[in-house]
Amino acid sequence: MTEPVLADLTTLRVGGSAARLLTATTTDELVAHVTTAWDDDEWLVLGGGSNLLVADDGFDGTVVLVRTTGVEHESDGDGVTVRVAAGEPWDTFVATTVERGWTGLEALSGIPGTVGAAPVQNIGAYGVELSDVLTRIEFLDASTGERAWVPAAELALGYRTSTLKHGRRGAVLTVEFRLGTASDAGVAVRYAQLAGSLGVELGAFV
Ligand SMILES: Cc1cc2nc3c(=O)[nH]c(=O)nc-3n(C[C@H](O)[C@H](O)[C@H](O)COP(=O)(O)OP(=O)(O)OC[C@H]3O[C@@H](n4cnc5c(N)ncnc54)[C@H](O)[C@@H]3O)c2cc1C
Q1: Where are the alpha helices (DSSP H) in the chain?
Q2: Which atom of ligand 1 is the closest one to the Cα of 87?
Q3: Which residue in 86, 97, 126, 153 has its CB near the most CB atoms, within 10 A?
Q4: Residues 91 and 174 reside in one and the same domain
Q5: Does residue 137 have a pLDDT over 90?
Q6: What is the Cα–Cα distance from 87 to 68, expressed in whole angstroms?
Q7: 195 inside domain
Q8: Does residue 155 share a domain with residue 77?
């Protein structure tokens, strides 16, 4: 059997082979694969590969490729709660929210990668950060083996950082957001250049 080449799975298109690659297309499969991967000394959860540099020597462990899908939502009078599988492509998800008139993620359009990786570095752009609308993640914790919902407040989300980036190992299975709806007051423009391009004051609602 040919070993999977990680250069084929990363944006930079560099990197040698992984000893083993397991692809998860359902959340239960993701849990099973990650749990199996823990038996190896080295393991890695891989999303879209857009923020990862792999050495030419490759990776002597198990790589779990996250390709899970699914978007669920519940609307109420104040907005919408959306739960998204980790493997959903981020930009496709943002486009879905815009199409449905859900507000809060527009400024994060165009960022590559998967939904599950987004909390790892608290992605952001144009004055908006994931932490503005992230409520909690469903997380498989490598230190305890537990699968549980973790509130955003426990992730130490900061500028391009979180506990997931700094030692809290495991797999993000699902990400939950609280978004507005188009009938709300709109979205505040928090980035000077964007405000200039739109011809509005900084902080204005559009
Ligand atoms: C052209 C370009 C533009 C970009 N622009 C921006 C930008 O504007 N703003 C910004 O914030 N970032 C930006 N980024 C960075 C990148 O888009 C984000 O970091 C993105 O969240 C990475 O997603 P990914 O699925 O590709 O993660 P990967 O590269 O696959 O993984 C990155 C890290 O997250 C971990 N990880 C991935 N999935 C999971 C999971 N389900 N559970 C646990 N850990 C996981 C991996 O182990 C790895 O440590 C940009 C990158 C590129 C190449």
Answers
A1: 27-37, 90-99, 192-198
A2: 41
A3: 86
A4: yes
A5: yes
A6: 4
A7: no
A8: yes
